[in-house]
Specification:
Layout: E1 3-7, H1 11-22, E2 26-31, H2 34-41, E3 51-54, H3 55-61, E4 64-67, H4 71-79, H5 82-85, E5 89-92, E6 97-99, E7 105-108, H6 115-122, E8 127-131, H7 137-140, E9 152-156, H8 159-171, E10 179-183, H9 188-193, H10 198-205
Parallel strand pairs: 1-2, 1-4, 2-3, 4-5, 5-8, 9-10
Antiparallel strand pairs: 6-7, 8-9
Length: 216
């Protein structure tokens, strides 16, 4: 069992929290208003077995932290948690984009770089690993839902951290052969750039599960 903190209580964070909790990990979902988040996620059946806390407490008490905050504000939010994130693995699943007129991603916040690289530079004592940012949120925890096996890309400078994250991906349902270790954190700029493909797919086909994958 790993003590996992998830920053961001939207669809991505809540989805990951439910699956990782079901896999036996102790999960805390961190948000700016944990009481409201707990009330919002409560349902008639007690299927969500994880804790709620503010983001600073979540980062401080976790062994591994997942960034599921909006990518365009992640750098500022997480830099403010530098002390709490020191020495820990930070799994970044967000994409930093500016919206087009229709609200879909229109441009990258860090062209020629990536959110993951910016986070690693701002948090030198934290091991940043980029993954799961090339698919709709429901595929992150159920890759088997797609007709063709999807790919989970992995970027990061620390090999031990990437091995640990690979284990977590396995708990989310990802088979080892579908996890592609691209190399150092600089490779995250390639997978983050893939987000620019997403709005065109959504406009044509609607909000249906898909992933940008490697076919062999």
């Amino acid at each position: 069992m790993i003590n996992i903190g998830i920053l961001g209580a939207g669809r991505v964070g809540t989805n990951l929290a439910g699956k990782l909790s079901a896999a036996g990990h102790h999960v805390t979902l961190g948000s700016r208003n944990p009481e409201a988040t707990a009330a919002r996620t409560a349902g008639p059946a007690p299927r969500l077995a994880f804790a709620f806390a503010d983001q600073r407490t979540t980062a401080r008490t976790a062994d591994i932290v997942i960034n599921a905050t909006p990518g365009d504000s992640s750098l500022e939010r997480l830099t403010d948690l530098r002390t709490e994130l020191s020495g820990k693995i930070l799994v970044d699943v967000s994409n930093a984009t500016r919206d087009a007129a229709d609200g879909l991603p229109g441009d990258l916040c860090y062209p020629g770089s990536s959110l993951a690289e910016q986070l690693q530079a701002a948090l030198p004592d934290t091991h940043v690993v980029k993954t799961l940012n090339t698919m709709l949120f429901m595929v992150m925890t159920a890759p088997e839902m797609l007709a063709a096996p999807p790919t989970a890309y992995l970027s990061g400078d620390d090999e031990h951290a990437k091995r640990t994250v690979t284990g977590l991906l396995g708990d989310l349902g990802w088979q080892p052969e579908r996890i592609e270790n691209l190399g150092g954190i600089i490779t995250a700029r390639a997978t983050e750039a893939m987000i620019l493909l997403v709005p065109h797919i959504l406009r044509r086909h609607g909000f249906k599960p898909f992933a940008v994958s490697l076919a062999r």
